[in-house]
Amino acid sequence: MHGLTVRWSLENAPEGVEEALSAYVEATSHPKFTGRPGLRFKTWRMRAGEWFEGCYVFETPAERDAFQEEFSKTAADSPGSQIVGSAPVLIEPCDIVAVAEGGAGFLAAPSFR
């Protein structure tokens, strides 16, 4: 599988950015990517005051590369960048070596808060 990581720094982000990002993911981003053709899954990760990132896993390298090319054109103006107040500090393709589903099972949800 073919991954893409997009990361924003939260070091100089406005106060309350973590809540704003969580609300955006729940209301807008999660529904936007749920069921997206060619996308196996996406996760949103955050370390408060440090960074926020989207981790995408695509079925083929062509789908990943096309998404990366299109996103990179508007990354600085994307909703995540507008909320954080700056462009991503990292847009990086990677290979997904393996995925294991634990005994508790996989849970897809727009929010875990």
Q: How would you portray this structure in words?
A:
The chain is α+β, with helices and mostly antiparallel strands and 113 residues long. It has a single domain, classed as Alpha-Beta Plaits (2-Layer Sandwich), CATH 3.30.70. Helices cover 33% and strands 27% of the residues. The chain contains three helices and four strands; from the N terminus they run E-H-E-E-H-H-E. The chain has helices at 17-33, 61-74, 79-84; strands at 2-9, 39-47, 51-58, 90-95. The protein has a four-stranded antiparallel sheet with strand order 2-3-1-4. Strand 2 (39-47) and strand 3 (51-58) form a beta hairpin. The chain is globular, with a radius of gyration of 14 Å. This is Monooxygenase. It comes from Nocardioides jiangsuensis.
Major β-sheet strand ordering:
2-3-1-4
The first-level CATH class name: Alpha Beta
Residue share in helix: 25-40%
Spans of at least 5 consecutive residues with low confidence: none
Mean pLDDT comes to 96
What Rg is obtained from the alpha carbons, in whole angstroms? 14 Å
CATH domain topology: Alpha-Beta Plaits
Structural class: alpha+beta
